[in-house]
Specification:
The complex is a heterodimer. Chain A is an alpha+beta fold. Chain A is 44% helix and 24% strand. Chain A folds into four domains: 115 residues, Beta-Lactamase (2-Layer Sandwich), CATH 3.30.450; 114 residues, Beta-Lactamase, CATH 3.30.450.20; 93 residues, no CATH class; 122 residues, Heat Shock Protein 90 (2-Layer Sandwich). In chain A, strands 2-1-6-5-4-3 form a six-stranded antiparallel β-sheet. Chain A has a five-stranded antiparallel β-sheet with strand order 8-7-11-10-9. Chain A has a five-stranded mixed β-sheet with strand order 12-13-14-16-15. Helices cover 38% and strands 20% of the residues of chain B. In chain B, strand 1, helix 1 and strand 2 form a beta-alpha-beta unit. Classes of the chains: A alpha+beta, B alpha/beta.
Amino acid sequence: MGAQASSAVALPEGVLPAALDALPFGIVLIDQDEQVMYANRPARRLAADDLRIGESVQWASIKQPSIDEPTGGSAAGPNAPRASEISAVTFSGALVGMVRPMRMLVDGLDDAVLIVLSPLPDSEGRGRDPEQLLQEVEAVSQVGSWSWDVEADVVTLSDELFRLHGLLPQSMPATAATVARQYHPEDRAAQFELVDHCRRTGQPFENTHRIVRPDGTVRWRQARGQAVMEDGRAVRIYGTVEDITERVDRERALRHSLDDSRRLAAENESLRHEIESQLSEVRESRLRIVQAGYEARRRLERDLHDGAQQRLTTLGLILRSAQAQLPDGASPALEQALRDALVELQAGLSELRGMARGLHPAILSDEGLLPALESLVARSPLPAQLSADPVGRLPGPIETTAYLVVSEALTNAGRHAAASNAHVTVEHRHELLSVMVSDDGAGGARVEGGNGLRLLSDRVAALDGRLHIDSPLGGGTRLRAELPCA
Amino acid sequence: MATTVLIVDDNHGFRAWARVLLERAGYTVAGEAADGASAIAVALESSPEVVLLDVQLPDTDGFEVTRRLRAERSDVTVVLTSTREAVDYGAKLGNSGAVGFLSKDELSAEAFAQVLAGGRDRDHGESATVPG
């Protein structure tokens, strides 16, 4: 750079200053009176108002220049950095960078000094101020730092820590007492004790506590600290504070959610038990109702047998005795009356017997299911056959239900489906009694269709069994009852 | 000589009128009993040739009494009776040892005689029809 360069190439006016302004570091040219002859834009931006062309430099070096070797000739002003010196320089009390002065010859000037200021911080962070970098890191991580000069009771808080406390950075002087006032009342004593323990023993600490911000909001913090000991006494304690409120909130929400889930699961379990218990009660109750119904039918059959049937039977004996005692030549009308009476009595007894048998056939109680079914098939007006596995005695309700299934099916086949034949099959395998009745009738039977099938289905279900009906129109009916008899 | 008959039934009215019916038909009623235990006692004491025995008794049933009677006296002839029909007892009747069964509302001197005749036929090795 210099007059020669500029004279060799005809640069357009203003190109050199623009190029100098574009440099990533400051350049200041001063004369021997420390008057600023030139300062490029980065230098002017660094020094703010302290660099004015034609005025003396208002700077202060925070490090006294050390003279490596005597410089020949007169140096620039008394405060100016000497050639070959490197100093940190402040303008208006603020550190602006490193200074590398060099002596150079400028036409018409003796002892002019070119000062190169270190590169300015740029957007890529090159040459960043470590302090600023720390602040940025603290802000992003929501971690603040602090230091307590124990003897002076001065607490230095980082900007981020002020923000974590809900305060403007460096907005108030801090002491141990002012910091402690922000602890949550419930955590204050423990926090005092912790820090005091560190102060007395020098042992580092780490804990979680709460603070209350000036606006009343409560924040959770994770604190770590350790002491600098001198002669067995803590002279300084420093540490970091991380705001973990969001994490605590998330954990608490998760815990509540887990608690809710557990509670819900427990309630579901309790509800399930209750429902199972109720279901069990309903099942038992239904079974008791069915059993009570069977018992009532049996009692009624016995009452009919021991009572009305017995009396009417005796009446028949009396009438036949009377008939036998009629003298020869007795009134034909009287003879006829006795005959008619006996016929009517016989018919009535037959109906009564059928009714009693329909209520509960004695043979079922006396002999069991198969003899009862053999009797039923033998009496059936509809021709029917019985095929059966050997079946011993089974619990009364099972025998009665199986019998009623066959009885009802045969009645329906003959009475409603106009069947001409039916087949009854009984299987007893794996503790399951299956009773099937198939006929060649009109079909179309449904549980919902009446004919006693609904009642039958309920009776089977009361024993935890199942009733299947396959009855296509015109295709006969296959009715199957499955009764567990374990 | 008239056939002697023991009538066993817990219903007094039935016993009385059965006695009338049978005596009028020429049978000799050797005794009456209202339950199984007394039936066996009276039968052993009075040795009837025939016992008209109700199936339903207060203390036992007619099948058991038949078995015990036949065990004591193999020559006794038992005719079972009931307000129910033979079909209500199934195969049990055939294995009971009785010569026959009469539903009470069918009981007449003629029917009784027929059953006894069937029993005698059987006893003589001829085919017999057990009612029911």
